[in-house]
Design brief:
The complex is a heterodimer.
Chain A (H helix, E strand, L loop, with lengths): L1 E5 L2 H4 L5 E4 L8 H11 L1 H7 L5 E4 L2 E3 L10 E5 L6
Parallel strand pairs in A: 1-5
Antiparallel strand pairs in A: 1-2, 3-4, 3-5
Helix pairs in contact in A: 2-3
Chain B lengths: L3 E4 L5 H9 L7 E8 L3 E2 L2 E10 L3 H16 L4 E7 L1 E3 L4 E9 L2 H17 L3 E10 L5 E5 L4 H8 L4
Helix pairs in contact in B: 2-3, 3-4
Classes of the chains: A alpha+beta, B alpha+beta.
Chain lengths: 83, 158
């Protein structure tokens, strides 16, 4: 099981700002998780698919090919606006 | 004094200035910047601004920005405070303070830190407007990074 965090408007496209996803033979990478979310929640999936959306694994920016392990925290980050 | 603080509480500029200078007789230049919530943003009257962040990652990213600033310029002390939560027009959002021997370093480092805070740190802002929709609900929108902010950060890449 991994924890997926959704920030900014991504959290509002879903009923909650986090969800748990179970890893298995078809869900091994960050990209697989994105695909799984797109299947279950198409609106959220479309937003995750936008090129500006970044992915962080355990608080480090990674790309979608990144492999996952149980207990990981995977976050989808829409464009930031600090300051 | 930690260099990075992300919190809901307001800050006191005078107190921050004193802390920035304390015990640094060689710091002849102290630059402080305060960002506030505007009442008008791109023509919209702002009612509230909600700031969300990624706890842990935000502090780490800001610390990385400060380390880069310290490598580029000779600075004696730096401090960043960024507020999160529900804010209103005129509220203070962000403080950047830099103490250095000379003003050029202090100004440049403060600008660099602000530019990178705008474009790299994991904050998200939701603006709620005074305008109401046909159901009487305040209109709100997650803000996007401005092109001018991106251009401003780009100039440090050399």
């Amino acid at each position: 099981m991994i924890k997926v965090l959704l920030f900014g408007r991504l959290g509002e496209l879903h009923s909650s700002s986090s969800l748990d996803i179970k890893l298995d033979d078809s869900i091994k990478t960050a990209g697989d998780v994105r695909k799984k979310i797109a299947t279950d929640f198409p609106d959220l999936g479309r937003a995750l698919d936008e090129p500006q959306t970044l992915v962080a694994l355990n608080q480090e920016i990674v790309d979608l090919s990144q492999g996952l392990a149980n207990g990981d925290e995977l976050a989808f980050l829409p464009p930031v606006t600090g300051g | 004094m930690t260099e990075v603080l992300v919190c809901t509480e307001d800050f006191d500029l005078g107190e921050e200035y004193q802390n920035l200078c304390a015990g640094l007789p060689g710091a002849g230049a102290v630059v402080t910047f305060v960002g506030r919530v505007r009442d008008l943003n791109e023509g919209n009257e702002v009612a509230t601004l909600e700031l969300q962040h990624y706890p842990g990652m935000t502090e780490k990213l800001i610390q990385e920005i400060l380390e880069q600033a310290k490598q580029r310029w000779l600075v004696d002390r730096v401090r960043v405070i960024h507020r999160v939560g529900q804010l209103q027009p005129t509220d203070q959002i962000v403080f950047v303070g830099v103490a250095s021997a000379h003003r050029k370093e202090a100004f440049a480092a403060a600008e660099f830190i602000m530019d990178y805070l705008k474009t790299k740190a994991t904050f998200w802002k939701k603006e709620s407007r005074r305008d109401q929709d046909d159901k009487g609900k305040n209109q709100s929108e997650w803000l996007e990074m401005k092109g001018s902010d991106i251009a401003s950060a780009e100039r440090w890449k050399n």
